[in-house]
Amino acid sequence: MCQCSGYEPPVDPSRRDFLSRFGTGLAGVALASLLSRDGLLRADSGVAPSAPHFSPRARRAIHIFLQGGLSQVDSFDYKPELEKLHGKSYAGEKPDVFFNSIGLLHKSHFPFKQRGKSGLWVSDLFPHIASVADELTVITSMKAEVGNHTPATYSGNSGFKVLGFPALGSWLSYGLGSLTDDLPTFVVLPDSRGLPTGQHNNWTSAFLPARHQGVVLRSSGPAVNDLYSAKPVDDATRLARFELLEKMNRRHAATRDAGADALEARVRSYAMAARMQASVPEAADLDSEPEEIKKLYGLDNPECRDFARNALLGRRLLERGVRFVQLWSGGPFGSEVHWDAHGSVPDNHTREAKKIDPPVAALLADLRRRGMLDDTLVIFSTEFGRTPFSQTGDGKLGPGRDHNPEAFSAWLAGAGLKHGIAFGSTDESGHRAAKDVVSVYDFHATILHLLGIDHERLTYYHNGVRRRLTDVHGHVVREILA
Amino acid sequence: MRRLFPFILATAMAVALPRPSSAADVQVEFFRGVNLNGPPVVIDGQKWQGEGPGANQSVECIDARFDNQNIPLVPPTDPKRASMIRSSVWNSSGKGRIVLKDVPQGTYSVFLYFWEDNDSQKFSVSLQGKLVAAEVYSGSAGEWKKLGPWPVEPTDGHIELTYAGGHANLSGIEVWKGTVPTVKPAPPQPPPQTTDKKAGYDWWSLQPVKRPDVPHVNRAEWVRNPIDAFVLVRLEKEGLAPSPEADRRTLIRRVTFDLTGLPPTPEEAESFVTDNSPDAYVELVDRLLASPAYGERWARHWLDVVRYGDSQGFERNHFRPNAWRYRDWVIAALNADMPYDEFVRRQVAGDVLRPHDPTAVAATGYLVCGAYDFVGQTEGTATMKLVSRQDQLEDFVGNVGQTFLALTLNCARCHDHKFDPVPQREYYQIAAALGGVYDDGERETLADKNAADVKGQREALAPKLAELRARMDPTDSEIRKRLGETLVVKAREQAEKAKRAADEKAKALAEKPDDKNRKEEADQARKRSEERQAELARLGEDGAAAGAVSYDDVLAELPSDKRTQYAQLVGEVSRLETLDRLLAGGPAHAVSPKKPEPTRVLARGDVKQPGETVAPGGVAAVAGPSAEFGLAPDAPDDQRRRRLAEWLTDRHNPLVARVIANRLWHHHFGNGIVHTPNDFGFNGGRPSHPQLLDWLASELMDKNWSLKSLHHAIVTSATYRQSSAPRLDASAKDAGNRLLWRKSPARLEAESLRDAILAISGELNPRMGGPGFHDFDMPEQKGKNQEYPPRDVSGPEFNRRTVYRATPRSGTNALLDTLDCPDPSVATPARTVTTTPLQALSLLNNGFMIRSAEQFAERLKREARSDVRAQVERAYRLAYARPPLQDEADEARAFVEKHGLSQLCLVLLNANEFLYLD
Asked: Is the CB of B809 inside 8 Å of chain A's CB atoms?
C-alpha cells in the first residue's frame, strides 16, 4: 500500500476497510482494486473477489425466514414420545418461558408422515414441502440464543442479539461481491403484510460499507427506491444528462489524479444506474413467465399469491445474478400476521403455512428443474421454536405454544448437502436440542462454508474488533455436507 | 499424644485467603470449629461442633438465626462447608456476641466465616473487645468469605467475638492453637508488557502525554505553526516535499465545508479571492468558527460516535420525542466552545455535577441515546431481563470506553481483553460506575425554576431575543395574523377529533373493563384529548395564535425577495431561542438514575455464573489518575458517575485529550493520525505522527481544552492548506498520503451534500434547534410497535439542516442511505465512502433532488433574469465557487436551451466537482 518506511502501516491488514474509508485519496492504488470491490468491473475485468476461500458448493442463496417462531414439534421434528406424553405435565426442570404459563404437554397438532424415498418425517402442516422432502436437509437440533423475538431475529440474521451488526446477506455481498452489474447484490422481499420486527435493521450492512445493504424490492410501485425520476423525464433529456455529466466528470478528473479511482467509479456508476433502470423492471416482470410456472408457484391461488410472487421473483433475481435473496414470511407484531402461535398453533400455523407451502415447494422444484439447485443454496429458518407444552395455566391443555429458544428446526436444500436427512435431535418431548446441537453460529458457519467462505476468515475491522458473522463461535456442521 | 497438623487451606478458600508460601513449616493445631446455627460437621477433615438451641454448651451465642440452603454460593464450595455457611446467626439488634468457653490458656488463631443472603451490609468484628476487622462488606447474595486469622489469647477461658453494624450472617468460627501467620498479600504482579500478540501497560496510548519539542526542519520557511514542523520532519525524512498552497477558491470551498458543512456563497468566495491581505485566510477561519453552523457541522460528527438516535430500536422502537434536547445541547456546547473536559463531564454526570442546570441534565442524554430493548428489559422471563440489562451495560461501557478513551472495554465482558491490558474485572468496575444508569424514558431537566444562575442566564438572553423579534415583526405580523386564524381552526378540528377518539376508546373499555390494552389505549386517548383541548384554549388567548405560527410557516408564505433576509433573522433568533429553551427546562430523554444493583463479575459474561462483587473503578493500565475510585461496592449512583467523570477528565489521563485531538484531525484530513479513532488499543492503528498527536493533545489541554483553538491551529497550518493535486513522486512512495504530502480530496458526507443543495437552491432554512423534522410517517401503532415508513417531504420545515432530521432507528432515507449515512444503531467514528449505482439513481431521481434542481433553477432566474449565460455563470459560482470556463459555459448553454435550466441544475448537483472537495 505504501512503500515508505519508518512508520507502521495500519495494523489492520484489512485492505477493503482501508480502501472503503479512504477510497478517495488513493492515487497509487490501481483502479481495478476499488472497482472490483464495487462489483463494477467484475464482468469485464475478471478481477478475483477476496473470497471464496475455497471452492464453493453454492454460488448464491435464497433465505426464507419465518418470523414469529415455527413450532418444530408440529412441522419437522417428529416426536413419537410426545404422543404418549400428551396431556401429562412437563417433567423436567421448570422451563424459563416468556409468558411463564406452563401447561400440559401437547402432541403435534398435525400428523407426521414419512415422505418420499428418503422417508423424512414431515407433518401435514406443509403438504407441498413434504412432497419435495427428498431435497431437504433438516436440522432438528437447532438452538437459539434468546427467546425474545427481536433479539432472536437479529441473531438469526446477523449473529448478534443486538442491533448494529451486518446481516448474512451483507457479509456475502462483502465477501463474494456481485455476480452482475445490473442488479443489487442482496435483495430483500418483505412479507406483503409489512416489515418484520426490527425492520430494516434486519438487512443492514451496519459497519460494512453501504453498498452491502440489503435492497428492498417492492412488489408494487417502483421496485427499488429512486429507480425512476420522481418527475417524469423524456428519454432524450435523460440521455443528454448522462452525456453532459460524463463530459463534466471526465474534464474534472483530467486535472486531478490520473487514475482517480473514486472519480472514475462514479462515472461508471451512472452507466450502471442506467442499465439497472432497465434490468430491475425486467427482472420484476412476472407476467413474462409461462402460465404453467405461475400456476406452479401459486400465483393464481389467492391464499398464497403474495408469497408466490416473491418466491418467483426471488428465482428470477437469482437467475439474473443476485447473490442473496431473502424472503420474509411474517410481518410486524401487534396484529397476528406472523408465526407467533401463542393462542393457537392449529389456527396460526395453518393460516401461515398455506401462504408459503405451495410457493416454497414450487421454488425447490423449479430450481431443480433448471439445474440451479446444483449451485444454489436454499435456507429455511425461523428465530426460535415453540414449547411442546401448551401455553396455558398450570395443569391445562391448550392449543397455543410459547417461545422456545431451546430447540427449533430449520432446513437447507441445494448445493453441497446430503439430501433427505434429518440431523440432530431433541429430547423426548422436543423441548431441548439434545444431540448434535447446532447453534445459530454453527448454522451461519455452515452456510458460509457452502458458499466457499471460511467463517473465521471473513472479517471486518470495526471499533477494535475484527468482526465476524459468527462472533467468536461457530463450527461447520460437516455431517450434513455431501 | 499431640499431633501436629500442617496448616492447609482448603482450595475453596483461596479466594478469601492466599495460600501461605511455606505452609508446611507452620506448626499449629486445630482446636475447635463451631458451625453456628447448625449441626456437627466435618470440614477439611476436622470435626466441627454444632451450635444452636440445645447444642454444645461451650459456646454462648445470643442472636437471631438464619438458614437458607437454597441460595447458590459464590464461589461454590464443597457441600459440607456450604451447608455450614448457609446456616448462620445474625445481629438482629445491630450488635452481637459469641463466646467460646473452656479455652485453655495459650495463643490461638481465629477465623470467621460469614455470608450474604440478600442485600449487602457493612459490619465490624472485635475479639476480646479489640477491633480486628472494620467496614467489612458482606457482598451480594450468595457470596461468602473467611476472615482471619486473628491472634487472640483467652481471658478466663473465654474467647469473645463481638460484631456490630449491618445485619451480617456469621456462619462459623474456626480456631487453631498457635499462631497462624497472617499471609501477606502476594507482591503485586509486574504490569504486563507489550508482546507481539498483546498490548501491555507500556502500550503507547496509555503513556502520559508529554509535550514534545518542535522539531528542526530544513524548509523552515514552509512552516506556519508547529503542526507543520512535525509533518515536514517526516516528509523530509522520506525525501518528500510538501505540496504548494491550494488556490484561494479551493481553500474557501474546502475550509467552509469543513468547518460549517455548507458551501461558501459566491459573494464570500469572491471577496476572499480578491482580498490580498495576508490575514484574509485567518479572518475567514475566525468567521467560520464563530458561525453557529460550525456547531451544527461538528455536532453531527459527535452524534455519529455516540450513536445518537431518536427511537428505541428493537421490537417496540418507540419514538423519543424529546431526545433532541441532547442534540441541541451538543450543538450549543460546541458553538460556545465549552472546554472539552467539561463537555465530557457533563455528558457522563451533568445531572450530578450541576443538578440545577437543565442544560447539564440534558447533556446526560448521551448516556441513554443508544438502543433500548424494552421487551427484553420489561417483559419476558427473569433471566431474559438480566441478560438484556447486561447487554445494555455492555453498550454503555463500550460507548464510554470507545468515545472518550478509544478503548474497547466492551471486549472484556466475558474474559480478560484479548489484546489490551484490561482484565475482565475492570470491565465490571466501569460497569459498576455506570450501574445506576437507566433508560426510563424522559426526565424533567429543570430541578429548580428559581435557580439563580439559570434565571440570570435567561434574563440576559431576553433583551437580545426581544430585539431580534422586533426586527422580524414588520415582515411577519401580517402573515402571522392570517396563519394564526387557520391554526385555531385546525386546533379546533383536532380537539374535536381527539375527543371523539377518546369517547370511542372509553366506550370500548367500558365493554371490557379488565382489558389492559384497552385501558392503556383509553388512557392515552383521554390524555391526548386533554392536551388538544388545552392547546386550543392556549391558542384562544390574546395574540397566542399569531405567536404560535412557526418561522417555517412564515418563510413558506414570504415572497422570495423577502425570504433571504427573514431567514437570516430566523437563524439568529432560533439560536438564542434554542439556548433559552434548554435553560427553561422541559422533558428530555436523559439518564434516569436508579439505585445500582450490585455489580458481580460474571464468568463468561453469563448472568447465571455471578462471581465476586466489585466496586466502581477505572482501568489501571491508563497512566495518570488512580483506577481506584475509593468507593464502596454499594456506593450511590451520583458518587459513581462523579468519580468516573473525574477519572476520565483528569489532566493526567492521557487518552481523553489524545482521542479528541485525533477525532478532530480525522475529520479535517479524512484520516486520523491514528486511523481507528475509536480504538487506540493493540488492534487499532499506530499513530503516523505520534509526536504531533501529543503536541495536539498538550496544546488542547494548555488552551483550556478549547476545541476551537485546536481547529484553528489545524486549519491555519500549511499542512492543511496544501493543494490536493496528485504528484507522481509522492504517490509512488506514499499512495495513501499518510505522510500528508498533500491534502487528500474528500467526498461530501450525506448531510453536507443535502445541506449544500438546500443552500445552493436558496431554500436552506437556517432555523436552529427544537424537535427534528420527520421525513417519515409514524403510522398509528399496530399493537405496541412503531414503524417509520419514509415519505417525500417538502417545505421550509424540511429544509432545515440535516442534523435536525429526526433519526429513528431502522428509519430509512434513500438519498442519505446511499451516501453512507449510517443507521444510528452503529457507533460510527469514521464513515465509509462508497459509490454505487443506487447512489447514482438516488442523486438523479430522488424527489428531493428533482425539487431542489427546480428551486435552484428558479433562483437562477430570479438572480440572473432570463439571460442563459448569466444563469449558467451564477449556477457555477453557487455550486462550485467559480465561474465556468468558456467551453463549459457554451456546452451548458446549449444543454439549457434544449432541456431546460432545471435539468442543468440537476446535472451540476450530480457532478464530481460538486460532490468532491479538493
From this structure: yes
